[in-house]
Amino acid sequence: MSTLTIRSLRKNFGAVEVLKGIDLEAQNGEFIALVGPSGCGKSTLLAMIAGLESVTSGEIRIDGRLVNSVAPKDRDIAMVFQSYALYPTMTVRENITFGMESRRVPKPQQDEAVKRVAAFLQIEPLLGRKPGQLSGGQRQRVAMGRALVRDPKLFLFDEPLSNLDAKLRVDMRTEIKKLHNRVGKTTVYVTHDQVEAMTLASRIAVMHQGEVQQFDEPATIYNRPANMFVAGFMGSPAMNFLPAELSQEGGRPSVALQSADGKTASLPIVQALASDTPRQLILGIRPEHIYRFDPDLARRKPGIAQIDAVVELVEPTGAETMAVLRLGGKEITGRFDPDGTPRMGETVTLGIDMARACLFDPTTQRLI
Amino acid sequence: MSNHDLILSVPAPARPWRERLGSAMPLLVLGPSLVASFVYVFVFTGWTLYISLSNSSLLPTYGFVGLDNYASLWANRRWNIAYNNLFLFSGFYIVGSMAVGLLLAILIDQRVRGEAAWRTIFLYPLAVSFIVTGTVWSWLYNPVDGIQALVRGFGWTSFSFALASDRHYAIYAVIITGVWQASGFAMALFLAGLRSVDQDLIKAAQIDGASTFRIYRKVLLPTIAPIFLAVAVIQIQFAIKTFDLVAALTKGGPGISTTFPAIYVYDLMFQRGQIGEGAAAAIMMLAALAVVLVPYSFWVVWRRRKEAGHG
Ligand SMILES: Nc1ncnc2c1ncn2[C@@H]1O[C@H](COP(=O)(O)OP(=O)(O)OP(=O)(O)O)[C@@H](O)[C@H]1O
Ligand SMILES: [Mg+2]
């Protein structure tokens, strides 16, 4: 049983306000991911949860207990650092037992714990080595071992995978997911990699400039982003934004866009709109919701709207092909099946899945 | 066949002189200092060694007398005191300045206010030459107008502080002065070392529940262990050369109680015209230095190999 609750948490470094009223909570056993661009305050927030940074105002509760001024060692947390922070002069075994040693855990119990963790992470052959003699991935495991051996209330990870190469990162991501499934500890995981956040987390907090922009389940974050920042940050390639004007077409609301032949095509809006919706909108479409139009598709998906666009650039990646298209005077990216890849210079008729489109208010940038 | 041979076996095309000059440039530039170092270190050391085995007195002569000079050197009580002083002083000076320097570094490392000012204050003695230090401290130790006079002036009239004028304790006066001078230097190196340690290590140790004392003892100080060695080695060669500090502070006195090998060598060579025995004494100083530095350089090489081995 362990929960984390954060209420209107603020942090100032001198005159600079780094965190501007953060609200966050983690249920027992939840995996919370903090994502956001560099410098948005993720590490600072994590350090405050750990007790390594002081709280300017607001409150942090672990299991309901206010821990604002509790020392890190008394918060019953374990942390994995981006740099791993393994003690360079100690062996792997000593690294893992250092915390227990500090807490005067009896020797037999220590050996027991080391054995359990080493077996769990498959680092038994490394126990006698020093961190300098380990590869990046091995160091990462040892750092996790040091955290796991504690059996804490809360796991904190600060970008634990960002120093690994791409392949190893994917492997370790899977391992962390398995590990969390087995251990089931409440976890806060900082990353700037949105794929990591999407795959691991039960809930994601997207941060920007010291504020939580949205805190919700991965699917909601992805499909119903609260604002244009979240929409643009989550997903790669990023969501396309097209300024458009709201009109009525045959009694239904729709947006007008200029198509390739110079005419205006009107795209019907599926979502229910409030009466005070502004006339100027921003239409947000994810690349994978742009298809090559065919009648079959239109029959299967009710919200498909038709529009012509010129293909400006094609980028094959193997599994899929990205195409840069000119639409409504802007460049947008579409994600296509390699079979149906458009050619450069070609004018294609696109089918846009309006049921999945997001509408934003251009002044507040919020989702409508 | 190695790469090198391959290059040599290919007939070299006539290269323009500019290019040839370019490749010879490093040697040209380094040449004079290499020659000078070689002459000063090896030729002069060899020459001194030779003189120490000769019957030179006022001027160098080359009559070979074997180890006679060494025998008469070690038969001299003053030399024995000097050599003893050297070890006593070196030991206390190095340990003392490192201990004080480390303590200062750790205190400053606690993010005290006005850190730059403290650093400058403690480092300042290093900017003062040994002569000045020696002279100033000789005033402080002077019973008539130094610390003793000051404390007595406050009213404690029986206070006695005459370290430098007591033949049994004068060497400690030299040690204290030396430590005062060198602690700041040790502090600067230790502080730089402590600050270069990854701050995440400290955070990790805090989360691990280690006390500040334990963090220093188990994490920080072991991490900066190479700095301890570097400081010790630098201090050792200061200690063995000690001359001007003693010359200014006690002039080897009272009596001969604070004689040092360097002072003795100077005396023999330039005051008493016994160049042969002076050279022997100089060689003994070199031996003392080598006892420390040779193992150290082997250790450095060994460690570099080991690190290279692990990549
Ligand atoms: N000790 C400090 N003093 C002053 N400003 C700081 C301090 N630590 C962090 N900051 C500032 O706070 C902001 C947030 O820093 P933080 O390290 O939390 O970012 P981050 O989201 O973890 O970024 P990254 O993804 O690059 O790790 C940055 O603008 C940084 O410059
Ligand atoms: Mg960070």
Structure characterization notes:
The complex is a heterodimer of chains A (368) and B (311). Chain A has 368 residues and is of the alpha+beta class. Chain A has 2 domains: 4-233, P-loop containing nucleotide triphosphate hydrolases (Rossmann fold, 3-Layer(aba) Sandwich); 240-360, OB fold (Dihydrolipoamide Acetyltransferase, E2P), CATH 2.40.50. A 6-stranded mixed β-sheet of chain A has the order 6-7-8-3-9-10, with helices on both faces. In chain A, strands 13-12-11-14-20 form a 5-stranded antiparallel β-sheet. Chain A has 9 helices and 20 strands. In chain A, helix 2 crosses helix 3 (107-121) and helix 2 (92-102) runs parallel beside helix 4. The model of chain A has no long low-confidence stretch (mean pLDDT 88). With 311 residues, chain B is an all-alpha fold. Chain B has 14 helices and no strands. Chain B has helices at residues 3-9, 17-52, 68-74, 77-109, 115-127, 130-141, 147-153, 170-196, 199-207, 212-223, 225-241, 244-249, 261-271, 275-310. The longest helix of chain B has 36 residues, at 17-52. Chain B is flat, with a radius of gyration of 26 Å. The two termini of chain B are 26 Å apart. At the A-B interface, strand 6 and helix 2 of A face helix 9 and helix 10 of B. Residues 13, 16, 18, 36, 38-44, 192 of chain A line the site of adenosine-5'-triphosphate.
